[in-house]
Amino acid sequence: MLTVPATETRELAIDVRGVEKTFRIPTQRVETLKERATQLFSRAEYRQLRALRGIDFEVASGEFFGIVGRNGSGKSTLLKLLASIYRADAGSIRIAGRVAPCIELGVGFNVELSARENVALNGVMMGLTPREARSRFDEVIEFAELGEFTEMKLKNYSSGMLVRLGFSLMTHVDAEVLLIDEVLAVGDASFQRKCFDAFARLHAEGRTIVLVTHDMSAVERHCDRALLLEGGRIETIGEPDGVARRYLELNFGRAPAAAPGADSVSHDARVVDAGVADSNGEPASGFAQGEEITLEIVVEALRRLSEPVFGFQIVNADGLLIFAPEPIRLDGRQALAPGERARIRARIGNPLAEGHYYVHCAVGRGSEGQDPLAFRKNAADFVVYGTRGFGGVVALECSAETTVEPAEGSE
Ligand SMILES: Nc1ncnc2c1ncn2[C@@H]1O[C@H](COP(=O)(O)OP(=O)(O)O)[C@@H](O)[C@H]1O
Ligand SMILES: [Mg+2]
Description:
alpha+beta; 2 domains; seven-stranded mixed sheet; 22% helix; binds adenosine-5'-diphosphate
């Protein structure tokens, strides 16, 4: 385990020492009524599930701290311990300042009450005076974009509306420490952007932010440090890019293409660089399903190249070709002179299934055969994460409806 201490000069916001959490899960499946009856008199059997083991870390005041890990690794359990929703079986947790959690959908809300009543109640529970809670209501609702729904009972809210309300409230209660589970994944892209803008503002104000996420590009872009959980233990803690790389290795069995694969270079051209970016042009290594991916390839002509064509292939971790575009030609140019570089930027929609993808890229001559002049295997790679689809290589749009037909002969 690699441990990097939090910045020593700053005071601690969170101090976690030797924390353990074990769940007891009943192992006996009750099959029949008779068994159920006899079980009333036998001791139930439990399996111990050690969700967190020997967790030690600290977060400095004002840090933006990421928590990542595979499903079941213990991230939500850890956040709930930090939020005092669970109690640790052993160890200690100290938090300096007021905590605002946004952890589980709707937890803390009373679904029989309206947004207005819930903001008043929860605002007070998170430390505002009743007067403050009332006076911030408009801001909370405006950020959550729920202006038309303030008097609606929360039981009629969609999950997206609940997330927006929960997130907005968390950011408006003046808490020193904010704890956020993966809820953001529920929101749409424009709300997610707003959330990250809010994080940036809160971070600049010196609040401490702990964010559980699957989005490694968000970790790399926003976090000061991050922690990777694996099987209830800390696998890595430290610099965001190192943690993100380790996460990708654990999740997909390989590190991102740090060393590009086979490079075929001719005297005519070479692939200089290839990379993946998000829709803002920021380098990215992970994309939510449906999020647009931008590929950027830089090719240099070593000799004069007339009518060059550029291409790429996206393959999945099994090496299966997922997509290759039509040959791409230079816009408004016939040729590249020696030393000139062409930058190809391709925007691709992303209906991909969850997984790890690799990009091969090539440059050829339009008029001559298929053989590329230069080719680079695994020039870039990226991960797609999300929950759309249960298997396969693409996440197709899918909606289903069911009907039940009456048994034959019935009326
Ligand atoms: N309330 C609970 N009761 C029993 N087991 C639980 C409970 N909450 C979590 N677990 C188990 O603890 C482990 C860690 O879960 P969790 O913290 O939710 O992981 P993550 O958020 O990383 O997906 C999992 O094996 C999960 O099944
Ligand atoms: Mg979780």
